[in-house]
């Protein structure tokens, strides 16, 4: 009898349980930001991201250039999460029956310009006809320092930190969806966060090289879901202080104008592509300096702590607690709008 | 001004001209069956294939198991074309909002059962919501012998050879599309060729290890198009003798029943997933023995010769010649049915 799968975790768990498994060269398999392979004395990180028109992006907001750039950014963010150095990419492209050269040029330039910044080569791919625009990018990078930083290394007592600000991408998307102009100065920072995110490759590499972060991943589906994934992989709980969540001015102002809760954007909006990591509380300042050294102007904010419990608790300004694990974006959550 | 791109070659050429390019570890980039990377003293081949519901497969004919198996077969066939040994796979899966566990189980089992036969591990991937079913597989393999066999090695005077039979997959598809039963004994061999192709991994590896084949690729879009790609990459021409094309009995009989031309299926049908290679004419028999040693029962047929010209000429039984280059399956050919 067919049984519906209710969320992404179930889908991934089912795939992992049935997937063919091979030799000992595979160090980390299904379930982290990247797979980790041991090849010729080096550790390689591999990740893949599938983006589908109407699900991941709306061509009303994205120029072809920005779309190509964003697919690359989302993938690079997964390598950043392991602290790996980008090297090769493989692009699969599904397009309508009459691909337009200006459109294709834009996509490949956007993707290549960002890839080039981080030393990546587009080495191969596949192009096919498709009813909706589809982009799948699979990229490989070389692990740095003492090897890739995993989701599973968080320890009770660790400080939970994030780079940059949260919720800006969701704020920008909400603005665009409500008919706001992309170049309105009052919304620009948020719109740019949505259309032109910066993958934290340099910061991720620096954190991995420092050997001081215990666990790391990137924030693609919102802190509530991504931190729950880290907690599950590390067999720990997490506590987040609402008042510590870093929200920039534009995000707060747009929330007020649109009647939205900026906290919701920060917890569940997704596509921040910032780094989430844990470390010894005594080393937060040192790691903040390391991150600032790697990417000028990039802040590190301590947003909570790792506990011996399970799940993710949000502690409000009134000290009230609520469980928020897995309340971020989920492609397959039952009851989600289709 | 937007300019429509008229065929896959134009699309790939445009992408290759704009793609970011990196260090000297990349030995073969966009344009062959696989990219070739030099890592830690070994050569690695990487390939990716995107399959979209309604374009590449019809769920009326494919069980979930056969669909998963075919995605793996199509990818393994690209590694076979380089003579590489399969190692890792990365699967991106786009599905409806309520994925059914029986369906997903079938797809992953089909894919994993075939992967396991060749020592491949499914190491990672991505799962997203999508309006149509989408499967993208990216796989890596280790090159054998003196390194991967490329498309560009064909030399004037070479014999042009193919493994197995041609046109059976197209015959099986035509049978199914005209309402034929999948298990009709008179059509079974062709239907199986369409639904359950065998990638020629062992034969490809043996040919690469022999060091005697000059050029190799797999037949996925039909001999007319794939041989034209090889001729172009090798800067040579090709001449194919119509009467030498290996057609099995079922394919001939189905052509008669359906009023179709079996030669068209062999030249333009696609999805044969057999190997196309060239070699010294004096060594065809030796290579046929090597292939039979690697895959019992697998034949090698010499179908033509490499010339100093350009394009691909088909020589009929009446000695009439016609140019057939690129008349096989093309996702973006202008004027093709949408």
SSE topology sketch:
Two copies of one chain form a homodimer.
Chain A: H1 8-18, E1 26-28, E2 35-39, E3 42-52, H2 64-82, E4 84-95, H3 101-117, E5 121-129, E6 134-143, E7 159-163, H4 168-177, H5 188-195, H6 201-210, E8 213-218, H7 223-234, E9 237-241, H8 249-258, H9 262-269, E10 275-279, H10 284-294, E11 300-307, E12 312-315, E13 321-323
Parallel strand pairs in A: 4-5, 9-12
Antiparallel strand pairs in A: 1-2, 2-3, 3-6, 4-6, 7-10, 7-11, 8-10, 9-11, 12-13
Helix pairs in contact in A: 2-3, 2-6, 4-5, 4-8, 4-9, 6-10
Description:
The structure is a homodimer of 338-residue chains. By secondary structure, chain A is of the alpha+beta class. Chain A folds into 2 domains: 119 residues, PurM-like, N-terminal domain (60s Ribosomal Protein L30, Chain: A), CATH 3.30.1330; 173 residues, Alpha-Beta Complex (Phosphoribosyl-aminoimidazole Synthetase, Chain A, domain 2), CATH 3.90.650. A 7-stranded mixed beta sheet of chain A has the order 8-10-7-11-9-12-13. A 6-stranded mixed beta sheet of chain A has the order 1-2-3-6-4-5. The longest helix of chain A is centred in the first third of the chain and has 19 residues. Chain A starts with 7 loop residues before the first helix and ends in a 15-residue tail after the last strand. The model of chain A has no long low-confidence stretch (mean pLDDT 92). The interface between A and B is large, with 84 and 86 residues.
């Amino acid at each position: 009898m067919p049984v519906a799968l209710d969320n992404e975790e179930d889908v991934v768990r089912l795939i992992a349980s049935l997937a063919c498994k091979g030799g000992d060269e595979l160090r980390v398999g299904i379930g982290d930001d990247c797979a980790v392979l041991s090849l010729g004395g080096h550790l390689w990180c591999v990740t893949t991201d599938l983006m589908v028109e109407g699900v991941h992006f709306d061509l009303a907001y994205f120029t072809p250039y920005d779309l190509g750039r964003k697919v690359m950014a989302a993938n690079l963010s997964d390598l950043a999460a392991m602290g790996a150095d980008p090297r090769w990419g493989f692009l699969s492209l599904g397009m309508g029956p009459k691909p337009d050269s200006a459109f294709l040029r834009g996509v490949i330039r956007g993707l290549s310009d960002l890839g080039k910044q981080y030393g990546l080569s587009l080495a191969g791919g596949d192009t096919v006809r498709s009813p909706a625009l589809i982009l799948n990018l699979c990229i490989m990078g070389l692990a740095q320092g003492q090897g890739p930083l995993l989701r599973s290394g968080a320890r009770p007592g660790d400080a939970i930190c994030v780079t940059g600000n949260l919720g800006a991408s969701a704020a920008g998307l909400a603005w665009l969806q409500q008919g706001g102009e992309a170049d309105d100065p009052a919304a620009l920072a948020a719109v740019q966060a949505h259309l032109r995110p910066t993958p934290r490759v340099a910061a991720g590499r620096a954190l991995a090289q420092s050997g001081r972060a215990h666990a790391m991943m990137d924030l693609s589906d919102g802190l509530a879901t991504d931190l729950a994934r880290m907690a599950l992989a590390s067999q720990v709980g997490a506590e987040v202080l609402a008042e510590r969540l870093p929200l920039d001015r534009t995000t707060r102002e747009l929330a007020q104008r649109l009647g939205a809760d900026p906290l919701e954007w920060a917890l569940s909006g997704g596509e921040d592509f910032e780094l989430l990591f844990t470390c010894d509380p005594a080393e937060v300042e040192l790691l903040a300096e390391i991150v600032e050294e790697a990417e000028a102007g990039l802040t590190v904010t301590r947003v909570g702590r790792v506990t011996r419990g399970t799940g993710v608790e949000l502690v409000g300004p009134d000290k009230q607690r609520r469980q928020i694990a897995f309340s971020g974006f989920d492609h397959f959550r039952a009851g989600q709008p289709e």
